[in-house]
């Protein structure tokens, strides 16, 4: 006789099959990890870095919602009085709020307007260079500043624009003018920030676009030439659409960083004489938190800044999806 299976027996058989499949998948996964363990060893320092310096500090978010004493931080983090949004309200009502926010946004927007298209233009020029040796040498010279720290760049700028030994003021004197303290002038400081930022980042970002251009099918250029397209039209209709996915992704990242106006760069170059045009959120947090020991207040300011950055990223990503462009998620 043929064996009759009841519903409980069938369910038990299905469960056993599912367990076998799960064990098989876990075994396959562990085998793959074991096989490629050296690759995982390579990414291990990066994982540890992000855990220690990016994820573990998130536990300190609670500081923004409590009154923390500078003399007993850890005790107050655990047992301090919960004050809710008190410190956020203090920042929004502060006399410094509009100044630091406007400076941060203006400097970031200037950097975006000048710094974002610059590597695209440079990559297009390098890609069209006929002499490949010249293109490689030029590209190397262009991205060398990326490997200089802002400390070194700040030192170079202080000497370059010095009123005593500066090259720029030397030219000013040569034409009969009076030396100008550029780094202490509200009229010039933002321009110097933006210019040094572009010089520091343009070469490295160019590499990303050149790498994207290598993935464009050469037959597209050949078809464009057969249709009578010159270099300009090939750039507009072939090259730019071919790297548009990279442009959109980097634009989303840049929009998300609008409230990161360059803490290290600004801190090293600014002075009280230009606070009115250079004091950004990060330098304000540094002075209030590290110098004045207002931990709870500055934690709230930092959390506010990151919340706005998250909204900017989500908005830019949503806009990219609506325009049928590449998006982060």
UniProtKB/TrEMBL annotation:
Alphabetized Pfam families for the sequence: BPD_transp_1 (PF00528)
GO biological process terms on file: transmembrane transport
Ranges where the ABC transmembrane type-1 domain occurs: 101-316
Topological category with respect to the lipid bilayer: Multi-pass membrane protein
Membrane-crossing segments per the record: 38-65, 104-126, 147-172, 192-216, 236-259, 295-320
SUPFAM superfamilies named among the record's database cross-references: MetI-like
Entry keyword rRNA-binding: no
Record's subcellular location: Cell membrane; Membrane
Keyword field: Membrane, Transmembrane, Transmembrane helix, Transport
Cellular component, GO, one term: plasma membrane
InterPro entries: MetI-like, MetI-like_sf
Family: Belongs to the binding-protein-dependent transport system permease family.
Annotated protein name in UniProt: Sugar ABC transporter permease
Organism: Paenibacillus thalictri
């Amino acid at each position: 006789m043929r064996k009759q299976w009841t519903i409980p027996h069938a369910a038990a058989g299905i469960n056993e099959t599912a367990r076998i499949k799960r064990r098989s998948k876990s075994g396959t996964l562990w085998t793959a990890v074991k096989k490629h363990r050296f690759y995982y060893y390579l990414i291990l320092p990066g994982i540890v870095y992000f855990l220690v310096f990016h994820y573990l500090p998130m536990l300190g978010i609670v500081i923004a919602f409590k009154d923390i004493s500078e003399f007993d931080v850890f005790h107050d983090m655990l047992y301090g009085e919960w004050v809710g949004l008190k410190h956020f309200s203090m920042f929004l009502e502060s006399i410094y709020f509009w100044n630091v926010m406007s400076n941060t946004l203006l400097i970031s927007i200037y950097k975006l307007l000048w710094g974002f298209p610059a590597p695209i233009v440079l990559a297009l020029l390098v890609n069209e260079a006929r002499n490949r040796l010249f293109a490689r040498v030029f590209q190397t010279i262009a991205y060398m500043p990326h490997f200089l720290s802002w400390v070194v760049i700040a030192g170079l700028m202080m000497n370059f624009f010095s009123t005593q030994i500066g090259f720029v003021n030397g030219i000013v004197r040569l034409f009969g003018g009076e030396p100008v303290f550029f780094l202490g002038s509200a009229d010039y400081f933002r321009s110097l920030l933006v210019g040094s930022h572009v010089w520091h980042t343009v070469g490295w970002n160019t590499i990303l676009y050149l790498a994207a251009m290598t993935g464009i099918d050469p037959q597209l250029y050949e078809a464009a030439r057969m249709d009578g397209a010159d270099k300009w039209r090939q750039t507009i209709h072939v090259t730019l659409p071919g790297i548009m996915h990279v442009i959109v992704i980097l634009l989303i990242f840049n929009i998300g960083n609008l409230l990161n106006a360059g803490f290290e760069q600004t801190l090293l170059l600014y002075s009280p004489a230009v606070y009115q045009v250079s004091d950004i959120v990060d330098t304000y947090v540094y002075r209030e938190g590290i110098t004045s020991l207002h931990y709870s207040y500055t934690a709230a300011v930092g959390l506010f800044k990151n919340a706005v950055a998250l909204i900017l990223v989500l908005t830019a990503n949503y806009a990219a999806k609506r325009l049928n462009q590449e998006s982060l998620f």
